[in-house]
Design goal:
Number of domains: 1
Largest sheet: none
Structural class: mainly alpha
Order of helices and strands: HHHHHHHHHHHHHHHHHHHHH
Shape: globular
Radius of gyration: 23 Å
Length: 485
């Protein structure tokens, strides 16, 4: 499998898929303009959900972008929920039973944690809200796994579509905000504040914290794309095209990462780049020289647009905020602004370590309980399911890293692993139920490895398909299988 992946990951997309991706991309951009969003937002999002899954490439693009485009007006479903519903309609319409097998590793891996959380929620009065949110997140990963399976060996193309969805979230809102007026802000501005927060930039779905995680994924992903060299036999034009996409993506996303002022996003970017660079030298199709060109492009972009983009204000705000919060931090500047929230959540976990639901004293740097949040997926899991639930969730998170560590010398796997590591880092300061890129990447990863928990099923399937020994009458099941062949 290593040789196959190292040779067949390259970029390939049919002309009709180009047009479909362009249509999806333009539709997502249009949703950010009030003149289009208010009368046509719901119809556009339903239409994109019904046509984008005709191709797995445009399907991943829309599934990722739907996490950040504004929710449709006067609708009970969010954009991401409509996107998943559209995928399910396509799966039923096309009767993709073989493609559904791609989601089996994800379902088996997350099953123990999901069953534990559902049991705890219903037995101890937690209600159905959290299980439903978790079920929807799992379904998002299922759709991503199915799309990756349908794309077959076009692994690189699927990842590029994922990155373009990230770039959409990181670029469109702040470009419109700075240059074209007031984009759509489909959330409660009275509770969360303006998405630009004076000198911080956010997305159409929320404040600056949501932009940091998505921008960090895009930066690391485009750096990885920039470093790839296509295998022999590919046309030179394809290499130029990928280089152009990567360089343009870096130049547009890097200012957005700085403008968000998200310290968690910047730390996650650094973590992903470290993973990418540590093992890049062992990969056959990775080259470090284009990385220097990419860095030069980012520096040039920032130099030309520093004043235009208001980078001074964004950077100074982040530095002053860090210094102010570091004065009150007891455990160092690294946890400034999150220390009280994390401490309160950790004490809540310890208050009821077996079944969750512990009492939380909602201490916050904002000075009010109304705005309290744990700011960590892992602490949220511990609060909801106790330490057993946290252990099951951490094991679920670690499975792709454990399985793909032996494939780290395969360039496309290293690229995918570095993105996954970014999502693990983002989860430490954000919510994996609110932004589902973690589940999308898990679903994409799950189809490229034979997980140990799947060995029993594969062995059983192999035994069932083995021919009957000579001199023995085949069973009814074997005879039916032979007739079908």
């Amino acid at each position: 499998m290593n040789n196959k992946m190292s040779e067949n990951w390259w970029f390939h997309i049919e002309p009709w898929e180009w047009w479909l991706c362009a249509f999806v991309f333009l539709g997502c951009i249009g949703l950010h303009f009030p003149a289009i969003y208010n009368p046509f937002g719901l119809y556009i999002e339903v239409g994109l959900s019904l046509i984008s899954y005709a191709s797995p490439i445009s399907g991943i693009l829309w599934l990722t972008a739907a996490q950040v485009v504004p929710d449709p007006p006067v609708a009970s479903l969010s954009s991401s929920q409509i996107a998943v519903a559209g995928a399910m309609v396509w799966l039923v319409f096309k009767s993709q039973r073989r493609s559904l097998e791609a989601c089996k590793p994800l379902l088996i891996a997350v099953g123990p944690y999901f069953c534990w959380q559902v049991t705890i929620s219903f037995l101890f009065g937690g209600g159905a809200q959290l299980p439903l949110l978790l079920l929807f997140a799992i379904l998002t990963g299922v759709v991503a796994a199915v799309m990756a399976r349908q794309a077959e060996n076009r692994i690189g193309t699927i990842i590029i579509a994922f990155l373009l969805g990230q770039a959409l979230s990181a670029c469109v809102f702040w470009i419109i905000k700075l240059h074209l007026g007031a984009p759509v802000q489909a959330f409660d501005t009275e509770l969360y504040g303006d998405a630009s927060e004076v000198v911080r930039m956010g997305t159409a779905r929320g404040n600056a914290g949501m932009l940091g995680g998505t921008a960090s994924l895009a930066v690391v992903g485009f750096f990885g794309l920039l470093m790839f060299r296509l295998p022999q036999g590919n046309r030179k034009n394809n290499q130029i095209l990928l280089f152009t996409i990567a360089l343009a993506g870096l130049c547009f996303v890097s200012p957005a990462l700085i403008a968000s002022g998200s310290r968690g996003g910047m730390i996650s970017t650094l973590v992903g780049l470290i993973v990418l660079l540590l093992f890049a030298g062992n990969c056959r199709f990775l080259s470090l020289f284009p990385l220097l060109i990419g860095l030069a492009g980012v520096v040039l972009m920032l130099a030309v647009g520093w004043q235009r983009f208001g980078m001074n204000e964004h950077l100074n705000e982040m530095i002053s905020r860090q210094e102010m919060q570091a004065e009150d931090a007891e455990h160092g500047a690294l946890v400034a602004g999150r220390e009280q929230e994390w401490e309160a959540a950790a004490m809540g976990v310890l208050d009821s370590p077996l079944i969750g639901g512990g009492h939380v004293v909602k201490k916050s740097y904002a000075g009010t309980e109304e705005y309290w949040a744990s700011h960590s997926t892992y602490l949220d899991v511990g609060l909801a399911g106790g330490i057993p639930g946290l252990i099951l969730f951490l094991w679920f998170c670690a499975m792709p890293i454990i399985q793909f560590w032996k494939l780290r010398n395969v360039s496309v796997m290293l690229w995918l692993i570095s993105l996954y590591v970014v999502t693990l880092s983002v989860n430490s300061t954000g919510s994996a139920l609110r932004m589902k890129h973690f589940w999308i990447l898990w679903g994409m990863i799950s189809i490229f490895a034979k997980f140990p928990f799947d060995a029993w099923y594969r062995a059983r399937l192999k035994m069932r398909r083995a021919p009957a020994p000579a001199g023995r009458t085949p069973s009814l099941e074997e005879a039916q299988e032979k007739n079908q062949k």
